[in-house]
Design a protein that fits this description.
The protein has 380 residues and is mainly alpha-helical. Helices cover 73% and strands 2% of the residues.
Length: 380
Amino acid sequence: MRISVISAALVASLVGFGSTVALVLSAAAALGATPAQTASWLLAVSLAKALGSAALSWSTRVPVVLAWSTPGAALIAATSGTTMPEAVAAFALAGVLVMLTGAIRPLGRLVAMIPDGVAAAMLAGVLLPFCLKAALTVEASPILILPMVAVFLIVRLASPALAVLAALGVGLALAFGTGAASLPDLALPLPAFTFIAPDLNPAVLLGLGVPIYLVTMASQNLPGFAVLRAAGYEPPVRPALLVTGALSTASAFVGAHMVNMAAITAAICLGDDVHPDRSQRWTVGLAYAGFWVLLGLLAPLIILLLAALPGEVMAALVGLALLSPLMGALSWAFAVPEQRFAATVTLAVSASGVAAFGIGAAFWGLLAGLAVHGLERWRR
């Protein structure tokens, strides 16, 4: 295996982990996960990504790399009053729906019928509150946050993919260097899975499970397939949906949320500089899998370090990590003039945090947007 393949896989793994791990930890905290459940979550989702990337790359000879669902994690972090057992059932439902999308063509067509503007606006409504909270951290802790923002903006000029990782490094250095955080007793406990029996709450299944499935399909899987196609590969759509859906369903019972096709990190692994022979570029999926196994095994240590950081630093990291996805979602939401009002309604309701009948705001935002879109189409 070429050094260029290994280096590309290493960078993609570190970018994928470092840029949004704070968001995953926020999601776990929102569900009241114990430290053991959080470690199990990170271990399971990391190994699911590793197994899926290796299996799909090996079997299809296409460089397939997987990611965890960033919008899914944001959706989970925005919930309140949901327990881990209830969330586990929702995670498993979302995984099953992805499998069914790969197995049953009409279901895939039904998802594709949701207007792009409405789907993107739902995602934007989920992401927006996190970015707004990040802005408030500057007032609360300017000494820690302003240097992080400055480094993020400067590094982004050269490499957007590494910008959040650089901000994370600055945040760690400043927090521990200034005494704002105390270095914990560093130990490397053996990671272990924690089984969580699901609790079938219909409101959570509908208000969390279905939106996770929809935002993952619309903002992760479809762009991931598009990145492969743009690089000259025929994306293995059906096998990828079946594999990621099965892995997501299985790993849900030890606390993990969804895995899906990668887009940004995939682009790092698809260039000519990775391997000059396109027919051998699939090996990057194997190297990528190896690094994710290592990251999963180191999850308890990483959790100790990040848990010691002040809350403002974690909130700032989450907000910075979500700026690019928010920009993309807003661009798609208002790209089609005929869908702009429906998208605006979807965005407003999704960002409001309303949870009528115990069902989350993302579901109500989608429902409101579809209703407005349907009325406008009927009028035209």
